[in-house]
Amino acid sequence: MGDNPKYEKEYDLPYPEAAEYPYKRMSMAERAAQFSAFKALTGYGDAVEEAARRTDSRIGLDDRAAGLLNMKMQILREHIGEEPEITVVCFVPDGKKAGGKYDAVSGRVKRIDGYKRILRFSDDRVVPLDDILTMEGEVFGILSQNEAEWD
Questions:
Q1: I need a labelling partner for 132 at 20 to 30 A (CA). Which of 22, 52, 102, 126 fits?
Q2: Under 8 Å CB-to-CB from 100, ≥6 apart: which residues?
Q3: What tens digit of pLDDT does each residue of 41-58 get?
Q4: Any idea where the domains of the chain sit in the sequence?
Q5: 63-150, which class in CATH?
Q6: How far is CA 56 from the centre of its chain?
């Protein structure tokens, strides 16, 4: 067994257990699990996942779309006292990387601030005017109905 005959008889003795020790001994498998593979590059998987996440580019409006949006904005200004309900599709920039996504925001419009260039809803949500792609709502009436025919 061992190289030193002096300790030969001690090799087969059981491991001494302390009576006051409250935990049971770890098995060999449990001890080995402590030293098993670990994630050496913490956060690397998250970084790869973030890099792979897709974002959309901002869509530039052509002259026709910009003109239509301006007409709808004028109609909205004329009816702002009624707090009309509309749905706005707007660009929401991504906080972590270039690009963003397009999101629909619906609600009653409380105010159009031309100085700050924002559209404020009655629930205090804010949409920057420069990020608006389209607006829909009953307040636009025949303009929205004929929009498809203009294409």
A1: 52
A2: 55, 56, 58, 91, 92, 93, 94
A3: 677 777 888 777 788 888
A4: 5-52, 63-150
A5: mainly beta
A6: 13
Helix, strand, or coil (residue 12)? coil
Please say if the pLDDT value at position 25 is more than 90.
no
Whether the CB-CB separation of 93 and 128 falls below 8 Å is answered with no
Show the tokens assigned to 114. Answer: 């031309």
Q: How confident is the model at residue 33 (pLDDT cuts 50, 70, 90)?
A: confident
Q: What is the DSSP string of 28-78?
A: HHHHHHHTS---SSTTHHHHHHHHH---BPPPPP-HHHHHHHHHHHHHHHH
- Both structure tokens of 83: 């707090």
- The closest of 101, 73, 71, 90 to 131, measured between CA atoms, is 90
